[in-house]
Write a structure and sequence with these properties.
The complex is a heterotrimer.
Chain A: H1 3-50
Chain B: H1 6-29, H2 43-70, H3 74-105, H4 114-134, H5 140-167, H6 185-226
Helix pairs in contact in B: 1-6, 2-3, 2-5, 2-6, 3-4, 3-5, 3-6, 4-5
Chain C: H1 3-21, H2 24-42, H3 49-69, H4 73-77, H5 80-86, H6 91-120, H7 126-151, H8 156-180, H9 184-210
Classes of the chains: A mainly alpha, B mainly alpha, C mainly alpha.
Chain lengths: 66, 227, 212
Amino acid sequence: MTTAEKYVTAAYLVVLAVVLLYVVIYAFKLARLEREVLRLARLAAERREAGEAPRVEPAEPVRTSI
Amino acid sequence: MSLRNNRGVALASTAALLLLAGISLAFFWVPDDVDQGFSQRIFYIHVPVALTAYACFGWGAWKALRLLWTGEVRYDLESYTAVHMGVIFGILTLVTGSIWARISWGVWWSWGERQLVLFLVLFLFYSAYFMLRYSTEPGPRRERMSAVYALFGVVLIPVSFLAIRLAEGFIHPTVFTRDGPQMAGSMFFVFCVCFAGTLALAGALYANELLGKRVDASLRELEEARA
Amino acid sequence: MTYFGDVAALARKDLLLELRSRDTLPAMLLFVVSTLVVFHFALPADSSDVAAGGLLWVAIVFTALLGLTRAFAAEREQRLLDGLVLAPCDRSAIWLAKGASVMAFLLLAEAVALPAFALFFAPVDVTLVAAVLLADIGIAAVGTLLAAMAAASRARELLLPLLFLPLAIPVIVGGVGATVADEPARYLGFLALYDLLFAILSWASFEYVVTE
């Protein structure tokens, strides 16, 4: 490959890399969301069984949304 | 508030098709530029990405205006996500532009490249947007301040561009020039395909991220209702 | 009270406060002169007056930042901003009044800075003074709004420069251009355009920034 070809390919690959990086970060966020949902679902089920459930502190600090 | 992701799926599929087609065309079908040779092909990703960034900032400003006009909370998330997309594509513009400068003139940065300088200023401006959001308590005040700031950004775009042009009057003039593309029909076609593709990509990322933020917000409401 | 009556009352309050406490203005004066001295040591031997002219604008912008950081400090410390907002006046009157007092501080600081610059570096001509006046309007207009935003956040002193500097770039371009370029009129016109656009935008959007 000539130098020009290398640089041009690099430019397109950078775009791909950034998009894929975004996907990876997003995957982590979705995993966290799923953990939260499952936790809340479990607590809701426990509360339904127990009737009046005691207050539970959140396991993860509730993140300030940005 | 719909939590189905039909739009996200549709946009992502469209983006995949268009970008695959566009990039293939850019590499294999379109002829070399007469002046710049093979390296001109960066144009087909650099300019669409730049224009998409502008579109995202404009979209964010539009949603900001809607927020200030109607006060509906959803516009805050939409504006914020749009600005986020704009910054991502802005970074891509800076990187691809820098690579193009490297090929064309051997330097990684050129103050004479007006688009690049403009994106640098905008990058600084919109990065401060995130600083603003991050250091303010969530609530209607933060939503409004973010919206006002997003509107300022969109006014800043033409003003900055004018400033950068004027600055060339007293800053040491650079010798680098690049002829604006006198595009053959085939080149314009490939450009359009790539541009549509990057817009669709931005739209797909936007739709997905917005959905994620809405789920996040719903979860937080659930958390607070429970506790 | 009329709109301009409100503005006058609020501006007078700020200026009286400053007259009594005397904290912001002396700091700005000292800061701008110190900065000019630093520039002397920062400019290599064969730098032209043109370079010094450019640096003058850096000094002005950073001195303005100093003053702006203090602009809503009094209100913050005594939570007066909530009271002001509840007052039966148009919120934009607050912006106009605060902007006017910021402008007054800037003008006073420059009344010292420009003679100092003429003494240390190069003569000051009418174009430069005109550019400084026009730039002050833009800085005060945008800076007051951004200072109100920063006042509502947790990282106030850190945030204001981050918000302000990108918006100050066109002002610097206009100012330096008017100072050093061959055709200052274009740059003065550009400064006027900036002032018009951003003053209107700031005036219209201020109430959204300060209300809860």
